[in-house]
Amino acid sequence: MKFRIGQKIVCIKEPWTPIEAPWRSYPKYGEVYTMRGYRPDGDDLISLLLVEIVNDIGIDGLEAGFWEGRFRPVVTRESDISCFKALLKPKLEPVE
């Protein structure tokens, strides 16, 4: 599995339609979520459970999860503007 509990993840595929199960809440494309757990979902599939979405327990005794293939980790980068600051410094040339 490429995710860990507590990790921020983003929905990268337009997921489900209300026709599939109108009583459930579903992730929205482009939204960021926090993973709170996971469970095997048969055939080597993993379903993710999200902090922001909690559905009722189904007839199988499990909460509906969301297929991990519809998400990717949120990538955070440190901002470094030193290259732009260098452009602001005047270039000194020797005086003859």
Write a structural description.
With about 100 residues, the chain is mainly beta. It has one domain. The protein is built from one helix and five strands. The protein has one helix at about 80-90; strands at about 10, 30-40, 45-50, 65, 70-75. The chain has a five-stranded antiparallel sheet with strand order 4-3-2-1-5, with no helix packed on it. The model has no long low-confidence stretch (mean pLDDT about 85).
Q: How far from one another are the termini?
A: 66 Å
Helicity, as a percent range: under 10%
Read across the widest sheet, the strand sequence of neighbours is: 4-3-2-1-5
Q: How many separate domains?
A: 1
State the order of secondary-structure elements, H for helix, E for strand: EEEEEH
Shape descriptor reads elongated
The Rg value, from CA coordinates, equals: 22 Å
Count of separate DSSP helical elements: 1
The fraction of residues in strands falls at: 15-25%
Mean pLDDT: 84
List unreliable stretches of 5+ residues.
none
Helix/strand/pairing category: mainly beta
Number of strands: 5
Instruction: Tell me the major beta sheet.
Output: 5 strands, antiparallel
